[in-house]
Amino acid sequence: MSHDLLRLSCEFEERFGRPPELAARAPGRVNLIGEHTDYNGGLVLPCAIDRDTVVLGARRDDARFRVHSRELRADAVFDAGTLCRTGGWVDYVQGVVFALAERGGRVPGLDLAIASEVPEGAGLSSSAALEVAIATLLAHAAEDDLPPRERARIAHRAESGFVGVACGVMDQLASAMGREGAALRIDCTSLAISVVPLPEAAALLIVDSGVRHRLSDGEYNRRRRECEVALAAAQSAGVAPAGAATLRALTTADLPALARSLDALSLRRVRHVLTENDRVDEVCDALAKGDLPRAGVALRAGMESLRRDFEVAVPETEALCEIGDATPGVFGSRMTGAGFGGCTVHLVARDMAGGAQSAIVAGFARRYGRAPRAWLVRAARGAERLTLPAA
Ligand code: GLA
To answer: Does domain 202-377 have CATH number 3.30.70.890?
Structure first.
């Protein structure tokens, strides 16, 4: 984390006329593999990254929230008793207040200042980082010692129940529960989490295509519906059990039967989800054995599946992966997050990471006439309370 807490505290005091009493941080995340599987009850392999959202707060003696966003240079005010969706950034804050109240939590009014180094709209879960940071701070303010998994659940409820994005649980779990130097294999049906250490020799490079998606823009929700339609068709054809809640009831062994009973679009969507679940375990196994080339092959296969079967790639993310995979030191590249733009993730050899980063940035700049932003990230710890520096 590179936030300067002392400086943020001073800014807080200038703005609100008193020092902050509470602080919390939550990281963004990058998903290594397991894309569009979380809402299908499948497997994912994200890691929290060393880019944080930090929230500072001071309790008020009324139910009012005054919120300042440093990056957006914007202010908002709302009342805990009369939450109202605005369609803007403050809905993520209101959403957490909503979710805590829904589970019976008493939420005091607060003055809040938000600072974030998680790039917005790039597919690195800036919204989950904000929700989890707020949930961590509000739990602290209410003296409610919520475990990380519960804070993730509240953050997820904020997004799905208040902001109105029907996302899966991956982002909030990764932000709340991340481990230093490791990815998390999450089974999105049982919510069982196992820690998958990243080999020392590996580094993660993220490149931002600069193409902005908006999850709420409909394509994401459409993919979810397409998966539900495909499941219903598989059930009617007797390939999936009648009581199945998600595509997790199927495996790649069912693909021949599915090919006989589904229409072409449904088959493509299901084929991505089922093969992606297998790729998550393939990458976990390869990482455990330190076999980075094998992990890279699975990442590349994942990208091809997202491009051809799930149809969420755009020319810019395809180009970044193509350039990445032709770059020395890169084991494998894929888009990460929901898609329709956003970032790519590249698994690279640590000792060649700097050169690979420059080569990919230069290769993209030659094609598109602009240099993309790129970051070498470390897998980081999940959200936590912070101790404020003495003034
Ligand atoms: C977004 C959602 C996640 C997940 C990914 C796709 O990041 O918030 O829940 O569905 O897209 O894997």
So the answer is: yes
